[in-house]
Amino acid sequence: EAGVTQFPSHSVIEKGQTVTLRCDPISGHDNLYWYRRVMGKEIKFLLHFVKESKQDESGMPNNRFLAERTGGTYSTLKVQPAELEDSGVYFCASSPGGQETQYFGPGTRLLVL
Amino acid sequence: AQSVAQPEDQVNVAEGNPLTVKCTYSVSGNPYLFWYVQYPNRGLQFLLKYITGDNLVKGSYGFEAEFNKSQTSFHLKKPSALVSDSALYFCAVRGLFSGGYNKLIFGAGTRLAVHP
Fold first, then answer.
1. Given CB atoms, is B90 within the 8 Å cutoff of chain A?
2. Hey, is the C-beta of A101 within 8 angstroms of any chain B C-beta?
3. What residue ranges define each of the domains in chain B, with the CATH number in brackets?
């Protein structure tokens, strides 16, 4: 069974540009989460999808971040326009319905210059 | 507010010795607790979890963790460390409040270095 995959693995962009991160959850997992780790600090929750619906987006830092989950399958996280403080590692995780354990992808390392 | 603390930035252990990575938490109600490990250039891998039942939980790669409600701790342990255990370890608790029911709250991470 394939794990959670994320694309790209690395992205280097300039301040003001747009970047879109993609996450493909484990097949059949209804729950999809986005987290990020900034500058070696704690991994912080961004938002949670249940199928295509946003269950909790309390961790989204501001309106420059937009997450979507088309058809309840893969998800994208767009940052527009990117700022220096957005640099970090963005993790995606998924879990089956009713299960506590979240399975993480390898992360996307974003560097905004 | 719910929180997780990992008081040590780094733990150094000689190969073959027992290791402990500390974690304490603050949460209302009964906690769901997790340990994840991140190897270099890899994603987070699930190690083990405590939901209910026996306070000693066994997980992957010979790791175990002990839930201590009175001390609000969930320390990760292994009887005999391997060099290959060197990695970054994260403790997490599942949020219990409405609107954040399933999100994980992480500690800052502890880097484990096992020396030959």
1. yes
2. yes
3. 3-115 (2.60.40.10)
